[in-house]
Structures are given as structure tokens and as C-alpha cells.
Design brief:
Elements lengths: L2 H7 L3 H4 L3 H8 L2 E6 L4 E2 L9 E5 L3 E8 L2 E9 L4 E2 L1 H4 L7 E7 L1 E7 H10 L1 H27 L2 H16 L3 E2 L3 H8 L3 H13 L3 E4 L2 E4 L2 H9 L5
Antiparallel strand pairs: 1-8, 2-7, 3-6, 3-8, 4-5, 4-7, 9-11, 10-11
Helix pairs in contact: 5-6, 7-9, 7-10, 8-9
Length: 227
Amino acid sequence: MSPDAFVNFSNNGLVFQLPREDQNRLQQICQPLALAEGENLCPPDAKAPAKVYFLTGACVTLWVKHPDQAPLAVGLIGAEGAVGLGAALGQHPGHLQFEVQTAGQAWCADSQELQHLLQAHPTMLWVVARYLWQVTHDIANMAAAIQGDDIPTRLAAWLLLCAQRTHAAKLRLTHDQLARMMGVRRVSVTLAAMALKEQGLLDYKRGAIDILNLEGLVQHAQARTAA
């Protein structure tokens, strides 16, 4: 394996936390691949063995989908983490689904091979457990925002999260996409975006949003609707 490939592998935040020997063990069962926008990862009805994706360039949206309810986005994973780790712990995704929001690179491992590694090397399992707890915490915060925040505040939080995960101030997102993720009408997103634009926090045109004032967006995203 070339040094350049190793550096690319450790660009994943979860992998980076592992001791070097565990990074080497993990990389031996991983293959690089490109993920396409809109691709569904870890489908619950897949017949092939489940996969785990360590992201290095792509971003993946976590959706809660239920037959009787509209889907709702509850999280976003980028190069800080991985998708499909539950399968390596013997868990079924249930109502959670994973859709590639931003195309990019990842490293893919067979979930059963990863499970064997985690069982044999507790240091790896500990890092994975801490990461999954952080994901749980982030989803809980998102759920609280859905219940208590107004739409401009929720939109600011989503755009901030997207900027953090993609490490970019220019986001390829449409109002339709944002409305779908937030579970609101498109016109509600448009009105919220106009309000943020009037404050000088962002600008937008068809299919793209430019964050102009990141600090101001952070402050707006952290503002809670008064009870």
C-alpha cells in the first residue's frame, strides 16, 4: 500500500483516532471507492453482506423513514465518521437510512470482517463505541431542535452542519433538498433563507448557497426559540 493511500485513509476522523497498528489492520480489509450523490447505503432489504463506509470526502444524510410518516433527516456524517457501523455490531438499521448528500471518496469494509477485528482488538471497539455515542448525542440535539426551534434557526443549524461536514462555505443544496431534509414546505425554506440573507449571513442562487458570515450563522443556529 502506497504512503499516499495511507494518508488518505487516515483522513477519516474515526480512523485517525486509532493506534497506528489498528489503522493498518483496518486498512487491510478496506477498499477505496467513490460514492455518488443520491446513492443509498446500507439498504435494509439488501441481500448482499452489509458494508461499512469510512468517509473521507463524501457526506451522508441520516434519515428516519417510516411507512406511515414523511421521512425526516436527523443527522449528517462526513469525514469525521463512518456509516453502517451498526452492522458490525450485529444491529439492523431499522428505520434509519443513509443517503449520499455530497459525492466523494470513502473506504469500504465488509461488516463481518470488521466485526471480527472489533472482537479481537478492544482498542478499536472502544473508539467505535465513543463515536456512536457522539452520533446518538447529535441526533438527540437534532430532535430537540425539530421540536423547539423555528424554521430559520433550524435552517441555520442545517447549513452550519453541512459546512462543517464538507469543510466548505459554498454548498450545493437546493431549497427543495433542504425542505425535504427538514420536513417542511419549500416556501418555508425560501422565506427562512430570505431572512438569513437579509441579515448578511448567506447568499444563494439556483442550486447553491454561499455562507458569507460563518460566525453569525453559528450564533443564529444556537439561538433557541423562546418558550
